[in-house]
Write a structure and sequence with these properties.
The chain has one domain: Helix Hairpins, CATH 1.10.287. By secondary structure, it is an all-alpha fold. Helix 1 runs antiparallel to helix 2. It is built from 2 helices and no strands. Helices cover about 95% and strands about 0% of the residues.
């Protein structure tokens, strides 16, 4: 059961990491679009650009900056989820290992108990044989 929980945690962590990467890629796309518009403004302003068009470009670039800020928040949130999943996985692994050690310890105690019982039987047989041969 602990292995199944651990496996589920690994899957959840994998999904969280994928989502984090997806959010980072969205930010890169927004940054690339912003950079493209800035290059466009610079090239058009050297050849002459109307004030209205310049305002539109600036407004759109401002909108992209706002989207970038929002996307950075999304990335932070996705990172928090990754961190929580990682912590849960670590806890699940520790619990599984603890259970395995406990199981091994109980098994060793059982084996020792069996060996003691076997030795007791052997001693009784040896004692009985010694008494019979006297």
């Amino acid at each position: 059961m602990k292995k199944q929980i651990e496996s589920n945690m690994k899957n959840e962590l994998g999904k969280a990491v994928q989502e984090l990467e997806r959010q980072k890629n969205i930010l890169k796309e927004i940054e690339a679009e912003r950079d493209e518009y800035i290059r466009e403004i610079n090239s058009k302003s050297s050849s002459g650009i109307s004030v209205g068009l310049l305002k539109e470009y600036n407004s759109y670039i401002s909108l992209l900056k706002d989207r970038m800020k929002l996307q950075i928040k999304n990335i932070r949130y996705a990172q928090e989820i990754v961190d929580k999943c990682r912590e849960q996985l670590i806890t699940a692994v520790q619990e599984r290992k603890m259970m395995e050690k406990l199981r091994e310890k109980k098994y060793e105690e059982h084996v020792k108990g069996q060996q003691k019982m076997e030795q007791k039987v052997i001693d009784e047989i040896a004692s009985f044989n010694y008494k019979v041969s006297e």
